[in-house]
Amino acid sequence: MPDGLESFANLDLGRAARRGYPEAVYCEGKTPEQVAAIASALRARPDAVTLFTRAAPAHAKAILNELPDAHHDTDAGLLAWPPVPPEPAGGLVVVLAAGTSDLPVAREATQTARYLGRAAELVVDVGVAGLHRVLGHLDLLRRARVVVVAAGMDGALASVVAGLVAAPVVAVPTSVGYGAAFGGLAPLLAMLNACAPGVAVVNIDNGYGAGHLAAQIAAPRPAGDT
Amino acid sequence: MPDGLESFANLDLGRAARRGYPEAVYCEGKTPEQVAAIASALRARPDAVTLFTRAAPAHAKAILNELPDAHHDTDAGLLAWPPVPPEPAGGLVVVLAAGTSDLPVAREATQTARYLGRAAELVVDVGVAGLHRVLGHLDLLRRARVVVVAAGMDGALASVVAGLVAAPVVAVPTSVGYGAAFGGLAPLLAMLNACAPGVAVVNIDNGYGAGHLAAQIAAPRPAGDT
Amino acid sequence: MPDGLESFANLDLGRAARRGYPEAVYCEGKTPEQVAAIASALRARPDAVTLFTRAAPAHAKAILNELPDAHHDTDAGLLAWPPVPPEPAGGLVVVLAAGTSDLPVAREATQTARYLGRAAELVVDVGVAGLHRVLGHLDLLRRARVVVVAAGMDGALASVVAGLVAAPVVAVPTSVGYGAAFGGLAPLLAMLNACAPGVAVVNIDNGYGAGHLAAQIAAPRPAGDT
Amino acid sequence: MPDGLESFANLDLGRAARRGYPEAVYCEGKTPEQVAAIASALRARPDAVTLFTRAAPAHAKAILNELPDAHHDTDAGLLAWPPVPPEPAGGLVVVLAAGTSDLPVAREATQTARYLGRAAELVVDVGVAGLHRVLGHLDLLRRARVVVVAAGMDGALASVVAGLVAAPVVAVPTSVGYGAAFGGLAPLLAMLNACAPGVAVVNIDNGYGAGHLAAQIAAPRPAGDT
Amino acid sequence: MPDGLESFANLDLGRAARRGYPEAVYCEGKTPEQVAAIASALRARPDAVTLFTRAAPAHAKAILNELPDAHHDTDAGLLAWPPVPPEPAGGLVVVLAAGTSDLPVAREATQTARYLGRAAELVVDVGVAGLHRVLGHLDLLRRARVVVVAAGMDGALASVVAGLVAAPVVAVPTSVGYGAAFGGLAPLLAMLNACAPGVAVVNIDNGYGAGHLAAQIAAPRPAGDT
Amino acid sequence: MPDGLESFANLDLGRAARRGYPEAVYCEGKTPEQVAAIASALRARPDAVTLFTRAAPAHAKAILNELPDAHHDTDAGLLAWPPVPPEPAGGLVVVLAAGTSDLPVAREATQTARYLGRAAELVVDVGVAGLHRVLGHLDLLRRARVVVVAAGMDGALASVVAGLVAAPVVAVPTSVGYGAAFGGLAPLLAMLNACAPGVAVVNIDNGYGAGHLAAQIAAPRPAGDT
Amino acid sequence: MPDGLESFANLDLGRAARRGYPEAVYCEGKTPEQVAAIASALRARPDAVTLFTRAAPAHAKAILNELPDAHHDTDAGLLAWPPVPPEPAGGLVVVLAAGTSDLPVAREATQTARYLGRAAELVVDVGVAGLHRVLGHLDLLRRARVVVVAAGMDGALASVVAGLVAAPVVAVPTSVGYGAAFGGLAPLLAMLNACAPGVAVVNIDNGYGAGHLAAQIAAPRPAGDT
Amino acid sequence: MPDGLESFANLDLGRAARRGYPEAVYCEGKTPEQVAAIASALRARPDAVTLFTRAAPAHAKAILNELPDAHHDTDAGLLAWPPVPPEPAGGLVVVLAAGTSDLPVAREATQTARYLGRAAELVVDVGVAGLHRVLGHLDLLRRARVVVVAAGMDGALASVVAGLVAAPVVAVPTSVGYGAAFGGLAPLLAMLNACAPGVAVVNIDNGYGAGHLAAQIAAPRPAGDT
To answer: Is the pLDDT of residue B223 over 70?
Structure first.
């Protein structure tokens, strides 16, 4: 079998040009050596941001060895290179974490939106068990062009927020909770069945996907567009 | 095999004495003839209320033939005999139906609580997509000794209500909704994972069970008890 | 228990003002009489569009009795009143139906987007078993501000389209298929796991939700916004 | 992003006033540093009991560093501060553990009920494989205002107890068992389908939730109430 | 393709000789014409009992047309030919139906055991919600060489009985119940996880299989065997 | 929206040229009018065989109205036009039906293979409860280039056959069985876990897919190929 | 809370007298200290065999510290005390392991049957991928009063054996296999749907339960019994 | 119990003669000692290739101790002995890995096909998010007699490839992905529901099974066969 990068990966370097957003490198299931080889190949391409997602410490170490100035968000398991996000354009992304345990996923979403070029704000611990916590952020929520909700357990925050704002809500269920949460199945189903329309669901714990989708929804309009 | 009532049923007539609540007759899976025979046997026992649950029209007709003055709530598929509920005692039961489609289950719960001796009030169409609808009933909710919430889809109403009141919440998921509601699985899981504590879950569409549990929770205290 | 509309429904007539989009009436689980009463109450409110979703023939008949000029899309089980959609504003919504059997859901999405004020185009029978069918519509797809994909079976069309366009994709799994499609579970999971980011998933067969979400994503920007 | 407590948590210190029961701190998914910061902030609030649930040894160490006199139940993974439960009021809570392996969950329920102000007694190893073990406690069971049943495997104890007492039964399925117990799914479903009415189900292994619900059900009545 | 019986069936007429028990004809999924052809072919083989299981009315009519004196148990959907069961041998089979709705399955088990040569007694409505109903039959239960328990909902009766007798218990979960009974899944899992050993589980609603297994367990021993 | 065929379908008439096998028309979820329009359009294309699968009686009637000489296999719900299969080429396909109830699926597979150009033989009622029935066909099985096994319940026939022959086995689970067969899930999982390698699984009840795959596997080799 | 053995366990020492078989100690979920205390209490009761099941090395060490001469089968995770099984009585138990990986479960079943007083023989690696391996043991199989089959993956061995012998088959699915075996779900469902009647299913990996059930089925008959 | 190889395994050495393909040794669930004993026994049988699958490092070490020149593919967890594959015969097998994380499974398939006597080529990182990557290999794909597709997440690659080639596609879902991928369930269901016919599905992560099936499909034809 062939050796080197082409023996295990085939980078889609044209994706930023084709779709407007660069390809990310999903580290889970790759060896640190494979990730390092990809990082090395990308060093010559500083024109587009590359995100490394689901990076375990061994992945992070291998990436930082190749790209020492990459930004590393350890909570989110995310690395970004070049390290400085682009100047924000388009609408505001607001990310809500229902509880502290949802924070890693919420941070992954926030950072992804920023590195894809949006302004993004993160608000934590606004679960529906204390409605005043959500309602206290209504002004911010109504300024958002899209709201991301990261919530485990009953996932009820997505429905409540969708009932309060005109913007679409990107709901990312988390694997927070135990027993009959079944690793995020409970909030996933609740969000798919949100009684308020306007809820877009992504995969469990997929903060990257939520941030990417939010960045697309809040993208700047071409000149002359309504 | 033996004939007659004893060939298919063995009434637990002592249950009211033993547990304080009479046995109900679950009609589903019984033939109208079997239900009629049970109704006929109960005619001689007007001392305790008997509820017939999940009665299809054929069951109802068979029961009314034996007990013509029984009360029949067609929406809830429920018959009660004797037809007049006992004088209410104990605390107030408030039943909420998240949407109009949850009404049959909510009515079954309300009627069950009444026939087991509680005062019960029913409020409809208070889903969380319009929070003001729930919040508009806060005074009533805070007078309740127990709140029953019947909700399908995301089941989020149970969490929201439990976060607002000190009384326990009996949550009954309904099979309202489609697709990934999976016949009530979505609200069932959401309610089991309610982010606010104090939520007691019963089976999907089990309005009878919810009303029974609520009646027990709101039961009058023995004299001298705190 | 109370009689009349307030005994089973509590219309959220302020939703259009609050959220920018009116409440829809979900007919499943309501009796034709209940739906008729709602239709009758709405007759005095022609200022906002009302959609009646999941309307069986008996529901439709009851609605048309009250609102004879309502528009009725029998394939989609949808009625709209007033019958003429508003003048389109905002970006273009493109709806794809993977196969002919996905058409009812795709039509529900298309009509919903139109009645909520967007221009919407529908393209049918573009499943990935013949890639040329998708690729032949690339120009249209790239003009869309959001693409809705209705697909059953393997749900693969969502991933393929998301890999081709910069706009977000709203994926609505359908219950088309048999056996291990498990009523839409197979495409639902596939769409949640789309290997291309940018896929927003809604409930199985939920064309209404897909159209609503698409309308929100493609909403016109306030003046001065980028 | 902001630093300090407000960067990851937003304590609901008003919950005791609003609902009558204080907020608990769910440790799972939080870092020991986050838990320590919460413990430190609570030090100034000895007026309400705080429970830390699902505390792993690292969490416990971090909490005890901030609140050295907190009570630590290692079996239940629970810490309480201030360490002495309030004087009991209201009705008696009886907690049953079907087997020895259910004991951690049963202890979590018992301690929660005590710290929320109830008298609570714990009885162990009363599974239905030896009915005499349950029947031997009938007197105690009939003195309870609410019975908590912690059981894994077939969850049958909940049904048997509910058939014997007038008080409501709070059933908490445990993940005890293997194979087709599916992590507690088997007793969860059995309890939801209890053939005796009066069973309130909470999440798998959720001893805290069971104890909280029991404390609410057995709460003292306001003066003048029946 | 070939015509006649051999085009759709290949009777295993040697099974009684090979295994000691004849093959049964499972009617579900066969056309009445196919079942009639099989019945006609069996007419020449009165030496072994043939059972037709899951016979809908159309199947029964077709069978009775060919074998007019066959015994037809309409509740159980079972036909037997020749109509008279063999003289009983071996140990006693006791069949318990937890509720009236479990009766069709329990009858199928009882009749199957009888036609395979065992004495069998059926006891109805002995659910664990009223333990005295089970305990009242202890003498009979302890005379059984095998006990069959047909129960839906929580399936708890199997565990309770297995804890009371030395004989093995054949547990047949039924699809009785609603919501989270999930068509018999709840009692199936409960029975597989029975906390008392000695429970042999068969398929949901499989009264035939339960009766067959019971007949094998209670089979007479060869001379000289212990 | 557009009218006519192009408003709901986009026939992939080039598929036979591109892939060597023509597109089939899946009738489920299409209206009889839609199917009729497709049949009408195909009338001008007798060069390739068209199969109509999952045709309910109303579909069949609509098709036969347009293509009166189409072949109609009512058991299999299949129509073929032109009605005569091509001259067989390539290897032999042997189709096994475990039981009579599996016959519709097995016939669909057999007919599909024939209309796609293979010789195909069908053997019925060879379930593993009587191993001699399988073993009696070993000669035929060993002449096959591919064996299709249609089986419900335990799906064990696929494993047994795969252990006996060198040819690949195409396993099609059927929804035959009840209770814990869960609509074909049981044989599906069993076949995916076949202890003998060489088992290719297709969707539940998908006789068409099984026959198509078998036709591809047994396809004639190009001249000069080994 | 109380200390000592009674704080966590309530031994059912009368079970051997009541049911004829002693209670076993299920170690999973118990601490080594708890298991040691139970072992210590049993030392004074050598009249009945005690089995400790699912004993991890730490459990085994704790038990052997109290009961140094206990028999320890490390493969099966089983300890027995007193160490010598009783003299065998009743019929022969034959245990089959489909593959080598099923051996721990098969050994647990074999040893359990022996310590409960039966003669038991174990045969390994007789999966249906090589039918000759099963068929080569037909003589032994036909001498058994009950056959235990331990099999993972497709679980097909249970059906094949049940089709060959008159004795009942106790089928114990194992968690052997990967992917869609789903931890033993695949063989569990296959065994519940065995196409040959006479299969009694126990929980996944439950070798103890299989051996116990087999011992009951093969129990010696009382004098004078047939 | 017996000692030595026959106490835990019964090698099917005749399988190569009987089926044309040798038995493989599945290491998972076996101890290194058991695997070593099998390796030792095979040393005397160099006439057929033996594959050891799912070999953890401890297994590999034990095997290499007995068969030092065995080939060890560490990525695939596979060992082969004798180490040199046979001369290839039959058609070409092309293996596609959708992403880098699918590579271990794809390598297992590739190596298995080679050791069973086929020419096999492996292409990596051709997911449908960049269709050009698949389309760039069309020439190679159309030369294959069978294509193996290893893909996790949405499994969409199988459908896309099946729509492009006439050869059958063997689809092996992988457990790559997170959350609602549910350990490979999502691609498994997607592949079973592939909208293009001609997809043969094997178990999740079962690269060995996929390679074996591909080798059978691409087997050389007997002389004189078409």
So the answer is: no
What b/e readout covers A194-226, taking b as 16+ CB neighbours within 10 angstroms?
bbbbbbbbbbbbbbbbbbbbbbbbbbebeeeee
H64 residue type, one letter: L
Half-sphere exposure of F27 (CA within 13 A, CB side): 26
CB contact under 8 A, A19 and C170: no
Closest residue by Cα to residue E176 from F26, F3, B54, H179: B54
DSSP states along B49-98: -EEEES--HHHHHHHHHHSTT-EEETTTTEEEESSSPPPP-SS-EEEEES
> Chain D residue with minimal CA distance to E191?
D154
User: What's chain D look like in SS3?
Assistant: CCCCHHHCCCCCCCHHHHHCCCCCEECCCCCHHHHHHHHHHHCCCCCCCEEEECCCHHHHHHHHHHCCCCEEECCCCEEEECCCCCCCCCCCEEEEECCHHHHHHHHHHHHHHHHCCCCEEEEECCCHHHHHHHHCCHHHHHHCCEEEEEECCCCHHHHHHHCCCCCCEEEEECCCCCHHHHHHHHHHHHHHCCCCCCEEECCCCCHHHHHHHHHHHCCCCCCCCC
Q: At E173, which helix (H) or strand (E)?
A: strand E169-173
Determine whether the interchain pair G100/H34 forms a contact, defined as Cβ–Cβ distance below 8 Å: yes
Strands E120-124, E146-151: pairing kind: unpaired
What residues of H are in contact with residue A185 (Cβ under 8 Å)?
Answer: 180
Average pLDDT, chain A: 92
At B131, which amino acid appears?
A: L
CA H72 to chain centre: 14
Question: What are the tens digits of pLDDT across the range G6-16?
Answer: 788 887 777 77
Mean pLDDT score across all residues of chain G: 92
- Work out the widest C-alpha separation in chain C, in whole angstroms: 61
Instruction: With beta carbons under 8 A apart, name residues in chain H contacting C153.
Output: 193-195
Residue among G162, G179, G192 whose CB faces F180 most closely: G192
Q: What's the mean per-residue pLDDT of chain D?
A: 92
- Cis previous bond, D173, omega within 30: no
Nearest Cα to Cα of residue C128 among C205, C185, C196, C207: C196
Question: Among residues G116, G101, G100, G108, which one has the least CA distance to residue G206?
Answer: G108
Tens digit of pLDDT for each residue in H88-115?
Answer: 999 999 999 999 999 999 999 999 999 9
Count how many residues are written for chain E: 226
Mutate to test the interface with D, among A107, A178, A185 (most CBs of D within 10 A): A178
Helix (H, G, I), strand (E, B) or coil at G55: coil
Q: Do chains C and H have 3 or more beta-carbon pairs under 8 angstroms? A: yes
**Cβ-based interface (< 8 Å): residues of G facing H:** 99-103, 107, 110, 122, 124-126, 129-130, 133, 176-181
- Chain B: nearest CA to A226, how far in angstroms? 29
Between CA A85 and CA A97, with CA A91 as vertex, the angle to 5 degrees is 75
CA distance A121 to A123: 7
Is the predicted pLDDT of residue F192 greater than 90, yes or no? yes
User: Is the Cβ pair A208, C217 closer than 8 Å?
Assistant: no
Closest of G71, G74, G65, G123 to residue G94, by C-alpha: G123
- Which of B100, B126, B130 is opposite residue C30, by nearest beta carbon? B100
Q: Which of H1, H3, H41 is nearest to H23 (CA)?
A: H41
Using an 8 Å Cβ cutoff, are C20 and C49 in contact? no
- The answer to whether the CB atoms of E9 and F100 lie below 8 A apart is yes
CB within 8 Å of A223: residues ≥ 6 apart: none
The two structure tokens encoding residue C192: 């949640």
Give dist(CA B135, CA D167) in Å, integer: 31
| Number of cross-chain residue pairs from E and G with Cβ atoms under 8 Å apart | 98
Residue of D nearest to E182 (CA): D189
